[in-house]
Amino acid sequence: MPPSPLTTVPVALADRAYDIHIGPGCRREIGAYARAAFGERLKTFVVVSNPTVWELYGGDVLQSLRAADIGAEVFLMGDGERFKTIRTAEKLWDFCIERRIERGAAFLAVGGGVVGDLAGFAAAAYLRGVPFAQMPTTLLAQIDSSVGGKTGVNRPRGKNLVGAFHQPVLVVADTDTLRTLPPREWNAGWHEALKYGVIRDAALFDRLTAAMPFRLGPDRVPTAAEQEFLIETVAECCRIKAGVVARDEREAGERKILNFGHTVGHAIEAVTRYRKFRHGEAVGIGMVAACDIAVKTGVLAAADAARVAEAVRRVGRMPSARGISAAEVVAALKYDKKASGGAVRFILPRAIGEVGEYAAPSDAVLRRCVEWALKNV
Ligand code: NAD
Ligand code: GLY
After folding, report:
1. What CATH number should be reported for the domain holding residue 173?
2. The model scores a pTM over 0.90
3. How far is the CA of 183 from the centre of ligand 1 (A)?
4. What is the CA(221)–ligand 2 centre distance, in A?
């Protein structure tokens, strides 16, 4: 029997249903959760992580896997968005082939969204598909990227342009691991959390806005109220995402709402070569730009757009956007993978808690909105 976590969120996907276990200290039980989710057939995990995360949590993970009699072959990839590439996936595949990793094995991603997306993609293709589990260690990965089965790698012209839908068998989100996150990684996660508030849950948006800035650190034990806020927020975001994914796994319709803020966000990441902004920060700017587009096209009241911009600002300081050309961002938007017939479409809020899909306005309007967002967050 696996141990009882504080909170479990199920993802209802029929024969590919899985659980997200959330709570402080869960990483020490990863072996028991994995044994329960994968069954006795699991002998070995190919564990994918990076040196930063592995140094902090590798020992606990290995100890827990050993206790559950699960072997581990550890592959450490480079730390950073620029390593989310087909080249890294190739290295991982070769690592597995050299060790004769067979179909009975599974992958385990231990890290943020970069590790999770890369490991999931590599698992989807290795031997035409092996199962995998996620142990997300950033706020962004716990509330978003580890859930829902989107995996992939970046190309120079755009993010996540090559990938696969491949659902994990298990997600274990240890909220204690977040205490070692640098401040900007907290911020990046909170922007994605605000996204859920804007698209689906006005009360969550208000709670988050009131709590910002919110960060824990490694040197102080969190209060009970802080623990509860963190666990409940991670769980609430996962519930929203799990519901959307269960209804529209392959993004035929409803799932597109999860891309709110991402069209401009991804373009900003691409023109800055994935080096200037954290993904969540770019999404924060992208949400502000999308709200401005919504105001300029008569979809959203200006007062609601101002509330979103204020919430994004409250999360924390953004890196300077000086030198970024709004025209280049708008040109990069055209590579958005959600474009249809060459036309980019936007998820725009009608109110806080409610969004719809709309055609893009003219490039001139887009440029003004991007420029405004870059200057005002
Ligand atoms: P990340 O994976 O780069 O992690 C951020 C940094 O934090 C890294 O330097 C990492 O080493 C470090 N780190 C991770 N855990 C830590 C911990 N507990 N303590 C200290 N440091 C830690 O970035 P991210 O924000 O987690 O993920 C961003 C990626 O996720 C992007 O590539 C984005 O496209 C992807 N994403 C995917 C989905 C999806 O549905 N698949 C959704 C959202 C984002
Ligand atoms: N982050 C967008 C999605 O999972 O669909």
Report:
1. 3.40.50.1970
2. yes
3. 13
4. 32
